[in-house]
Amino acid sequence: MGVSTKYSYDKQGSKLTMTDGRGKLTDYRYTAFGNTKTILNPDGKTVSYKYDLSGNAVCITDKNGNNTLYIYDSRGLVLEKQVKETGDSIKYTYDEAGNRKFMEDESGVSTYTYDGNNRLLEIKKDGASHIGYAYDEVGNVAKVTDQKGNIVSYTYDKSNRMETVTANGKTTTYTYDENGNREAIEYEGGVSEEYTYDRDNHLILLENKKPDGTIISEYNYKYDLAGRQISKTDSYGTTSYEYDRDGRVIKIAAPGKTTLYTYDNAGDRVSQNETYTSAQPSSYIDSVSGKEIQYILKKSEYTYSSSNQLLKLSERMFDESNKEIARKTTKTAYDDNGNQLKQSVSYTLPADTKLLPTTKGNAYGDSMSGTIDKLVEKTSYTFDGFNRLKKAETVKDGKHTEAEYKYDGDDLRVNKTVKKSDNAYKEEITNYLYDRQNVILETDAAGNIKTRYIKGINYIASVDSENKEAYFLFNGHGDTVQTVNEAGEVQNRYDYDIWGNPTLTIEVKANAIRYAGEYIDTETGLYYLKQGIMIHM
After folding, report:
1. Where does the Teneurin-like YD-shell domain lie (predicted)?
2. Do strands 57-61 and 46-51 pair parallel, antiparallel, or not at all (unpaired)?
């Protein structure tokens, strides 16, 4: 059965209702001037809006009951937005051209300088230079200078496509085919990524190579007439994909494993059955036999709220005789705005079986005392009035971790403070600097460089505190699959399922750029997607 969403409209063409595939109704109401007045959601919670005489929204009440207030200047530019209940506030001022001049938020005061063409030249933070820009004759960014004086330079071809990126004295070059597809990336020293396309511009071959042409990793892709990927061949073998009429994956046949999926009428995954050709380790020991529990089939079932939020994931594991040997249940709770507040994991076993962790874990500290069993998994999250994640607390693998975050007025995370039970809850502080919403610099509490990130079209490399580069190699989806040094020697290896969950992680040195080329917080397993959004893939 396909995904079905129905809409109704008024005479002005404004949407009145939306009914999803489960029959859940969202209702929209408008003011006499056509502005949205209320949105009544399937969970019974309402978002409401109030406006001034110019039609500017002056108050938005969210589903948590928080009121965000807006103040404008005579031009309709926002001077301040504040959440009444939490006190979260951001203030702005502008120049005569309407460019932002100052921004005050929890991270401090930012000052912006522009050239005669209203292009951003510099951002200062609390009076100190934060980041600077220079441009070529047609307006492309030609140079970026960070707060430590590190410079990244860019050149472009006649079509204004990025051609070279130079940083740390080393140049990365992009080339394109006649259709504008990226044809190759060549890093300093000769490591390269080469792309081949079919006549419909689908990527059919990606080769990551050492300077001498030796293949580091290779990906071959095939597609159906609808342009959907039907197979991928890499060093593990060939993986094939089948789809339903709505384009959703219903079967993946990978080396050693076949996975089947089903979906509900709203398009949400409701089941996932994984069958293996050989027994899989569960990481748990049967206390009766003393042997590690192994399974060959795992059945997963997903339960959702009326707002399509995942409430429960039940994973049942079966042995070769089709006997259920373990069940893992993950439950998730949300606030009314849909922010994830809590997640807990529990285990259920047959009466004749007991679970023991294969390794012990202990955690001690002010926030938690005693021994934490390795089987205990739970997470809690706290959000501010702007729905940005402010604190994450996790218990997993016998370790207790707390992470707190600060943001600027553009909702970019600028600070992270982490405390871990296995490090005596000592504060580990990381400050972040961004170039057009991309992380380019991490510093510690004293301002010392921890990691630099060189950004071109994609992330090119990370540079550690010892000024050593690690270059990123990708698959066709843009996932980081290896990091290598300048000679092409592999440092780290990664692989993922289609949902972004890691299936392979082998690291020689720490790296945060992972699935889809996005930044992961290894402490929580959350991906940082900018604008204060942090999610599990």
Report:
1. 106-239
2. antiparallel
- Report residue 477 as tokens: 């989806």
Contact between residue 225 and residue 207 where contact means Cβ atoms under 8 Å apart = no
Decide: 305 and 43 in contact? Cβ < 8 Å. Answer: yes
Report d(CA 332, CA 330) in Å as an integer. Answer: 7
Query: Which residue, chain included where needed, has tokens 């929209």?
Result: 28
Task: Give the N- to C-terminal CA distance of the chain in Å, as an integer.
Answer: 26
Identify the CATH assignment for 1-87 out of 2.40.128, 2.30.30, 1.10.287, 3.30.9. 2.40.128
Q: Which of 476, 474, 471 is nearest to 460 (CA)?
A: 471
Query: What residue has token string 């930012």?
Result: 110
> Is 230 strand, coil or helix?
strand
**Domains in the chain: boundaries:** 1-87
With beta carbons less than 8 A apart as the criterion, state whether 65 and 57 touch.
no
* Strand locations in 224-304 (E): 229-234, 237-243, 249-254, 257-263, 269-286, 292-304
The torsion region of residue 212 among left (phi > 0), alpha (psi -120 to 50) and beta comes to: alpha
Cα separation, 72 vs 94, whole angstroms: 11
Is residue 221 within 8 Å of residue 202, measured between CB atoms? yes
Greatest C-alpha distance within the chain: 77
Residue 394 contacts residue 404 (beta carbons within 8 Å): no
Global pTM reads 0.91
Report DSSP letters for 461-523, one per residue: EEEETT--EEEEEE-TT--EEEEE-TT--EEEEEEE-TTS-EEEEE-SS---B-GGG-EEETT
What are the pLDDT digits (tens) for 231-269? 999 999 999 999 999 999 999 999 999 999 999 988 999
Task: Write the DSSP assignment of 23-61 as a string of letters.
Answer: --EEEEEE-TTS-EEEEE-TTS-EEEEEE-TTS-EEEEE
Summarize pLDDT for 141-161 with one digit per residue, the tens.
999 999 999 999 999 999 999
